[in-house]
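Renewal narrative, Specific Aim 1. Our central claim is that a sequence can be written position by position from structural information alone. The example that follows is taken directly from our test logs and has not been curated for this report. It begins with the structure tokens describing the chain, in the order in which they were read.
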């Protein structure tokens, strides 16, 4: 039996409290050859939730694990260890890929309690997990169900603790499966106790949603009186988003004894960005660079497409002025400014991707616009200019010049805006007789 409420509580805490590590824990029980209960405690968290520091060997993080096994309030076992992670570059450190590991303990009786504290070695972030360990009855025939979405054939000793029948069985601790990422889930369980049946057994796997039975798969298999492990592949490609119960039943047709174990899984759709403004992702980052310093955007090329979408969403969510709305007011404002720029400043390039478009998108409509022609005393031909002044909420001044007389104005002067620069040839472009007081 799984501890669903524990998992959901832990997952919700990881969302609500940023100072807690988003560790997800899954507990499964199996009987050993002496009918003692073996508890396997799997845990996982994304790499990018840990703090990495650069060392001589690469980028290093550590997940410290401290555990306390107690019985009737008395400590039976106390221990700690550290999962050390070292990567040669920063790509994985920013990845949402999962780090996985497991603890195992075998107990002959119940009333033990296990408490585990997970801590980021480089920060103060941590989270604790605690559970009473309830053993199986000695005559239990069916173990807990272990879930996975990734199985790899491997007969080596690599990651031996995750091996199931010469396969690497990576446990999916949260039981969540995302469409477009996988169409298959796998379950593993074991049959057997001190009195193994001999003969043909019937196996039935049922999937239920909202008390409606969606599918039932039955088959027969031989049991020769020895402990038996079972791996099942289940197609979930046709299932809609939601919460499902999965029931495994093993029936002995001779004695009519039914062994039953029930668990759950969840189907979700891959999150799509709520804040896309352009067809191409590179246009999205070009827009965000209008607002963010280069130090914030330099990781862009190291991100996956999914990571880039999350980067975009994060920007708009941070600037959300109305958290209750699905789309932020700020996002809608910038969207309207882009539309305006494309309608008024598009000459060869889309209006949002011009100098005037950039300033308009950042600051909106100028408080004052001065139009005119450059002076006569210049080595360049006379050209049109625009001076934009922002004075109500800021004190910015910009001057744009129509170099090629095609209305594609280029910025040559900026005042008080640290993200913009002025041309060193401004006086040559404007002419000696240009009235510089217009920029005040």
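The sequence written for that structure reads:
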């Amino acid at each position: 039996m799984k501890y669903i409420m524990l998992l959901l509580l832990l997952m919700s805490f990881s969302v609500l409290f940023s100072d807690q590590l988003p560790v997800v824990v899954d507990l499964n029980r199996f009987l050993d050859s002496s009918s003692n209960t073996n508890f396997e405690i799997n845990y996982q968290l994304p790499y990018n939730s840990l703090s990495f520091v650069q060392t001589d060997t690469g980028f290093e993080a550590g997940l410290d694990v401290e555990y306390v096994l107690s019985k009737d309030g008395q400590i039976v076992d106390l221990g700690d260890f550290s999962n050390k992670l070292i990567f040669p570059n920063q790509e994985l450190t920013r990845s949402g890929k999962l780090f996985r590991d497991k603890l195992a303990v075998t107990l002959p009786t119940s009333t033990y309690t296990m408490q585990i504290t997970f801590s980021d070695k480089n920060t103060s972030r941590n989270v604790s997990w605690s559970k009473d360990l309830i053993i199986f009855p000695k005559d239990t025939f069916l173990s807990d169900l272990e879930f996975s979405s990734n199985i790899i054939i491997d007969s080596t000793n690599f990651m031996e603790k995750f091996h199931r029948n010469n396969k690497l069985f990576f446990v999916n601790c949260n039981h969540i499966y995302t469409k477009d990422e996988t169409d298959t889930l796998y379950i593993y369980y074991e049959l057997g106790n001190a009195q193994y049946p001999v003969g043909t057994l019937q196996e039935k796997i049922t999937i239920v949603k909202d008390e409606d039975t969606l599918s039932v798969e039955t088959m027969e298999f031989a049991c020769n009186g020895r402990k038996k492990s079972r791996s099942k592949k289940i197609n979930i490609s046709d299932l809609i988003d939601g919460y499902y119960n999965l029931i495994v039943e093993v029936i002995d047709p001779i004695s009519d004894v039914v062994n039953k174990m029930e668990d759950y899984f969840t189907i979700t759709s891959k999150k799509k960005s709520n804040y896309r403004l352009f067809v191409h992702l590179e246009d999205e980052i070009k827009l965000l660079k209008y607002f963010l310093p280069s130090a914030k955007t330099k990781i862009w090329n190291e991100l996956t497409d999914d990571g880039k979408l999350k980067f975009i969403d994060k920007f708009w969510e941070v600037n959300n002025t109305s958290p209750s709305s699905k789309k932020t007011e700020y996002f809608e404002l910038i969207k309207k400014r882009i539309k305006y720029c494309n309608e008024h400043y598009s000459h060869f390039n889309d209006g949002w991707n011009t100098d005037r478009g950039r300033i308009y998108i950042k600051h909106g409509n100028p408080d004052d616009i001065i139009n005119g022609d450059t002076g006569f005393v210049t080595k360049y031909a006379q050209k049109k200019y625009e001076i934009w002044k922002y004075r109500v909420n800021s004190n910015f001044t910009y001057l744009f010049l129509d170099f090629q007389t095609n209305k594609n104005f280029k910025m040559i002067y900026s005042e008080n805006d640290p993200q913009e620069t002025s041309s060193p040839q401004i006086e040559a472009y404007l002419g000696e007789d240009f009235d510089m007081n217009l920029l005040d």
